[in-house]
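Attaching the record inline, Q. Sequence:
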Amino acid sequence: MGELHTDLPGKPYHAPCFAQMRVTDTWQGYAGRLNWGRGQCLALLDDGCDLTDPPWQVRLPWGPKVLATHNSIEDNDDPTPVPPGYHGTSVGYPSSLNHQGVLGVAFDNFVAQVRCVSIVHLQGQGEAPTMAAALRWVAENYQRYHITAVNLSPLDDERHQQPVPTAIDEPLALLRQLGIWVSAPCGNHHYTDGISWPACQPLCFGIGAAVPGRHEAHLDRFANTDLLVAAEATSSSNAYAAASALILREAIEKCQYPWQEEGANLPEVMLAICKKTGVPIDDPATGCSFRELDLLAAVDHVFGRTSAQNPGKGL
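Structure, as predicted:
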């Protein structure tokens, strides 16, 4: 498994997965050049967050870790979870933690904590209206808070091979047009014939998982999975992907990378870069070929470097 580096800005939230994603290599290789999400806000759309949780009480030199809050169910700014909600308090740890020396992928970012469903594991698509309202809130406030990515964490734990039209599709289209990354977890049931909603929607990136310690697909995946990320659960793989989008966006902006030559919008170009530079995985269970996130290779590509891709590195 991945060794724990000693010259890092802090302890990685999950050292083996961070090594496999080459997050820790990126921290080392681009120290002093990239700011690890600083100045960007990641919107966390889930079943509510306990703001008294110590990681969300953190104040960084440039401001509070929790920059904004919203509750689209009750149309107020109190994201406190209501039973049976439980998941939203911790879903931001993998992406954004900066507490007592333990760091998420984009550890210097801001977060917006948004309660948009009663519980993360949905019963069908009945809560699509409040999810749509939360996505519209992001669209209305993205400039105010510099929201550049959305972790759309809810999932219905079903097997979808095709999109499911609901109220979220219109705001998803708007956010894609605005250049905001939106991704969701594929699910954790080891399904090989479909993925959860909303990950199955064409304007929401569906994030699956690779086995920590091995470049091997696991958990829910199908042909409509967009990217694999090393993790023990797809809620974590999606959190890692959304945070990596912040880092890749900063690299693109810093380099003035001509992304307009490669696609119609920035999120699609960033996904294409992640797939182009990722570790190839052929999955016998689905017959699909996937790509697994290699953050260093993606950032190196943007900076015009030739990344020394080594699928065994850090494992």
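The CA atoms of residues 7 and 28 lie 8 Å apart. The mean pLDDT is 95.

More tomorrow.
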